[in-house]
Records
---
Amino acid sequence: MSSSKTWLTQEAYDRLKVELAHISTKGREEIVARIAAAREEGDLKENGGYHAAREEQGKLEARIRQLTAMLENAEVGSAPAGDMEVVSLGSMVTVEMGGEKIEFLLGSREIAAENVKVFSEKSPLGGAVLGKKVGESTDYLLPNGKSNTVKILSVNPFLG
């Protein structure tokens, strides 16, 4: 598994550490108890509660692995402050694409609220705008192989 840095605010890092600690202990204990209770009901082939608990256990373990890797490879910092001219990690970027304005956070989905669009710096769009200045246009490849042009309209600090 390749390790890549994930930019996180200190607040997001702390929140994710608390989540990891909780699901690694109490979360696991709760799932194990549900599996044990469902197992006592008898025939496991037709035991919906048992299968649901096992599926939930798999999801929990995947989240534990995801958080562990993210926190081990986290680059913790503050969101950029003040007037910004250059797109950087942790900034809110407004771009124009195909006549439409789109605003998004450049960084990790883990630091944003659910109602904020997020693009990773590893995504085609995120990689294309990272380091660009307000007013610049750049091209990037879409997943279908076509080229798309994006113009940076504004860059602002992410205020959470």
---
Amino acid sequence: MTSLQAAPDAVDTPTQIGQQDTFGAWTEYAILVVDDEPGMRNFLSRALQPRCGLVEIANDCEAAMRLLEQRQFDLLLLDNAMPGKSGVDWLQELRAAGYYNEVILITAFADLEIAIRALRAGASDFILKPFRINQILNAIGRCFDRARLKRENFVLRRELVAIAEIDSDGLVGDSAALREIRAVIKRLAPLPTTVLISGESGTGKELAARALHSLSPRAQRPLVPLNCAAVAPEIIESELFGHLRGAFSGAASSREGLFFYAQGGTLFLDEVSELPAAMQTKLLRVLEDKKIRPVGAEREIPVDVRVVAATNRDLARDVEHGRFRKDLYYRLNVMNLHIPPLRERAEDIAPLTIHFMRLLSAQLGVPALPVDAGLLAALSRYAWPGNARELRNVVERALILGEFSLAGLGAEPAGEAGAPPEQLEAVEKRHILNVLAAAKGNKAEAARRLGVSRKTLDRKCSEWNG
């Protein structure tokens, strides 16, 4: 809703401004005031500076544009009647150039045509002079609430997709390798340094990225993930930088990119090795200049985003073979955080299994299955080519079926050095027979010790005897 209504004849005095304490602080936001009247600039500046993180002023559109080229502002307070170029005309140019943020237009004339032009140009609100400061503060509050909800909803939608892949609240395990990773994350988190996370698929690279973000000064702003391999090469530029209406076939409306939604936070680029060559060049420029250019836009927009990238490939080898830009590799690989595969930290299998059992049983609404030493020993013999993600899937399947079926893994287990790999079915069979022997052939007792039903144990024995 807009506020197209006449304001009282008097504006607030400085004393009255100081008494306005019913509005929240906006210390994380930056506002640009554009007005050719010194008295109005001073009035708005004095009213907003105690509440906002940054307030800049400009006396015309040209001066305001110079400030916009230097940094990103969350809101523009824009007077319409200015020498040279009106506020509405400049707002139209800003929107055409790819400026998406909130704009409140201020005018001294209750002109319906100006109001319609302003709203069509993309003004978030419309205020008439003279006004009281409460009107401006209310309008600013609405703008920031709208922007916050827009970003939160966008990030939440991506979080709901990501949570199906992650389903964890941190890196679980107590191996020496994982303890070292946690220590490195704590050292890196407070820094603005770009980080490259390497490791096989399913090792927990996104969990490491989330830990870097949650421990950083950016933790209150969004973490926006993008799987570069999941986006078609022809649209990845638009996905990252946004686009203007008509910028390409099918662009029926303007759209903000992921850099915009990650403003002040972290952008996580998973499988960064899959970026097309042209996009590698553009990403390098953004990392160097801290500015993006939406597709179809004429101007660049400053951004404040920490980039964390991840890869399951050997990027150094890709550089040698010309598949990845050397300069981008060095720019991303300021610090490298390597996540070892699960087979190299077998001591993490037990805590991960227990963690997934608790987590997934609660999510699925089914009782947790027993996890005994025999089962953990069998799981520890397996090579886990899919790493923690594969282990999670095994636990989920067991909960759905009501039993662990190790034979369903269907991949090579880890054998002793120089020995042929032992089939996991053989490991399972040997373990069950050992438990039966310990129970002196009592299948009911053996099933209890194994944590499976008597029916499951009978079926296993029948398969072996058949």
---
Amino acid sequence: MRIVIVGSGFGAVACARELLRAGHRDITVLERGDEMGGVWRDNTYPGAGCDIPSPLYSFSFAPNPGWSRRYAQQGEIHAYLRRVAHDEGIDALVSFGAEVVSATFDDDTGRWTVTTADGRVREAEVLVSAVGQLSRPAWPLVPGLELFDGPCFHSALWDHRLDPRGKNIAVIGTGASSVQFVPELARVAESVTIFQRTPAFIAPKADTPYGSTRRALYRRVPLLLRLERRRIWLLTELLGEGMSGTTRLARLLSRATGRLCLWHLRSQVPDDDLRARLTPDYTPGCKRVLFSNDYLPALGQPHVEVVTAAITEVTPEAILTADGVQRPADAIVVGTGFATQEFLAPMRVTGRGGTTLDEAWSSGARAYLGMCVPDFPNLFLVYGPNTNTGSGSMIDVLQAQGRYIRQCVDRLATGARGPMEVRRDVADAFDDDLQRRLGATVWARCASWYRDSSGRISSNWPGRVSQYVRRVRSLEPTDFSWRR
């Protein structure tokens, strides 16, 4: 069978490895960039790293005893991903500079026709989208932003030609990326002005270097690294219960997380006025909890200002806010995250009977197990709707999805049955139960990037990572309709 995988990040590698190990060889990985890596290739801003400890944020089949610290940074994670792809023979399957613009299912042949921006057309029986939820930068709707004279870029598209030394830098947004690059800018810039819409709960980051002795022990005694991974996994499962659970224990864990974050704020920000501006007024975990040891101290420096007044306009030289103050800037860095609800955009995906994915998702993105959509036979989504986790490693989720997709392709490859399509009644029942459970979680208590414009929670899974992994462990053929 011919298989096309779109994207080349962790999800694509997890899926391609499963398929290769099962004997499926006709695999093409389409990558719009000039090297592999997904978000870890694109996000090269200063201080970029992961907020999941590296022994867990790695493939279970490829433990890495050489991590330099508990929370590795972008360059090290990117190098690890490329090394695994090379070792598994996946990098040889990649076509670079191949941005997919459309994919159309042919009812007669039972095949997908995939077209890339260069006009090339490929056919495949199976199409896998591994573009994920965090690939398209989200820009703020600020009047005049395009008129700014100086450098203006999104953190995911960092302009390394900018030398921040001696410059006045404006930062719009205070999300997970800003928490990492703001301290780096504050070390060298003349001034840093941060425009904050909503403060975040920020917890201490238990980071530590892994010295040569520890790395040598991990290399010589692999069991020690497996135990470290297991210890971190158990902790994230506990935290995940606090974020997504509805039990009394979950409520206790959520309150404990809030108290920890507020203690961290009090200990690092002595100024009462600044601390008030940085204190969240929503339930802990409702929005993403961030981890940092140097962000809050950076905000307390005399050359750093936190502005909570709304931006009304950007002029060629400055940013104007609702309080009437105009703040000059030499450069603007946008840290407003990603368009998390545009799961496959900008691809135009057309399924059975001419139905487009935009039409199927007109009332919100949804997919059976986060992977399969009615009317779209032999299409599988990696890191699709409702597969993000409140705590834990997405790598575990991606590996579980790779195993599930491999089971589907194994059945299709027997030739006894044609394209498989999830039954609508099965998908609807799954989604109804999912939304009912999500309505009882902490994520239903405020607006966040987990939700779409209608308020539907389209990003998160309502449970722990282990629960999702168990849910997708085995393919149930009766969940699907099959064509001869």
---
Amino acid sequence: MSSTLKLAVFGDPVEHSLSPVIHNLFADQLGLSVDYSRIRCSIDQLPDRIAQFAAVGGIGANLTLPLKHAGLRLCRSLDRAARQARAVNTLKLEDGGWHGFNTDGAGLLLDLGRIGVNTRGARILIVGAGGVASGILGPLLGAQPALVTLLNRTFERGVELAERFEHLGPIDAGSLDQGPPREDYTLLVQATSLGHSGQSPNIDPAWLAPDAIACDLNYGEAHQPFKSWCDQHTIPCHDGLGMLVGQAALAFEIWTGQRPDMAPVVDEVKAIGFRGQGSGVRGR
């Protein structure tokens, strides 16, 4: 049996993925050998492609857009985060079947810890109520914030998502046009895809506490519009690269039983540089 772990990321598109770089850095750090590939795959192709991957020795996979929901149907079991998010981003082959996990929200918490942001007692404003937000809400609410507010262009969608998670902790919703129910949020999370079209959501800085910190779930070019807004209003801002590395570190631990140190890998990926647009949740 080969001592090299055969891993892959499945998505469409997938050519931009940083996952091979990140997981090879993890492997080097821990003295392990991995063969991590990119596999372009549509939703309809996923069952066959994942079976082919297992047949040639694949034991672990990441799923990115548009496959996270489709991946649920492949799984013999799901962890709590995947059930909450109704999406999987990590698969592990064990006992002849695939087991699904979602490490996105926990990866965000790891990165917030890395940059010194304490979520316990925080008042968190999340802009966006799509799949990105649903992937992080369970772990965020589990971190005992004082309040999480979802702000979305479509108010009803935000309310629907808040009601889905209200059993986990204090959460409400507001309209992006009218603003949130209060104006003293200590952490702003940008969870829309507007950066991919060169835009930033219409946020009023008056909604935030004077010492607020912002976190964008996008990185690379897609982060620049929101970064410019934060710079304009002198709000400390962090991009989504750390979350990307954080969720990958948790996936690597699922596959190997060893959790790598994410901080030096964030620095190494930044030093290597990366091209194109991406998001810590939408694109691995």
